[in-house]
Design goal:
Oligomer: single chain
Number of helices: 7
GO cellular component, one term: cytoplasm
Radius of gyration: 32 Å
Biased composition (Polar residues): 1-31
Family: Belongs to the ZFTRAF1 family.
Subcellular location: Cytoplasm
Strand order of the largest sheet: 2-1-3
Pfam family, one: Sina_RING
Number of strands: 5
């Protein structure tokens, strides 16, 4: 007798499950599942969608002082604001000349060689961003441009001494 009682009155504990019985006479549920709230940053994501990843990273990884991508060492203040080595040194020297304490231009926290640290992750990320060779317009990682210009670029005059020497000694010139 207990088994027949259980099959006559099915109980569903989940209001959104497909097994739940409908409470309306036409078979439709009066309770619809809750809809998710739209993301508040969806508009900014859509705007950034048109930009390339490299362009977005350039804006994120740039120096907060000169607004250029650092070409070498990157320092950060205690709050994480980035500065290239040239700007960092300039800020420290300028403060020393004025007999003031050096501060981060973004958050005004104190900066010094002891308080700031290098950001190796940003240095590595910047070195892997693509850049065009100024001579042949080939896309290369930033870390490989100097070697390309001096050793491989056919349009560059930087390695012209070696090119002329190869021509004078009749050494074969191989593309590397």
């Amino acid at each position: 007798m207990e088994a027949s009682t259980m099959t006559e009155n099915p109980v569903s504990y989940s209001h959104n499950s497909p097994e739940s019985t409908s409470s309306e006479p036409d078979g439709s549920d009066s309770q619809e599942p809750l809809k998710k709230k739209p993301r508040t940053d969806l508009e900014s994501y859509r705007k950034a969608e048109g930009e390339k990843l490299e362009e977005r990273l350039n804006g994120i990884l740039c120096c907060t002082v000169c607004l250029d991508l650092p070409s070498c060492t990157v320092y950060q203040c205690t709050n994480g604001h980035l500065m290239c080595a040239g700007c960092f040194t300039h800020l420290l020297a300028d403060a020393r000349l004025k007999d003031e304490r050096a501060t981060c231009p973004n958050c005004r926290c104190e900066i010094s060689k002891n308080l700031c640290s290098r950001n190796l992750a940003v240095e590595k990320a910047v070195s892997e961003l693509p850049i065009e060779c100024p001579h042949c317009n080939q896309q290369l990682p930033r870390s490989a441009v100097d070697q390309h210009v001096w050793n491989q670029c056919q349009e560059s005059t930087a390695g012209s001494f070696f090119s002329c020497r190869r021509l004078l000694t009749h050494e074969p010139v191989y593309a590397t």
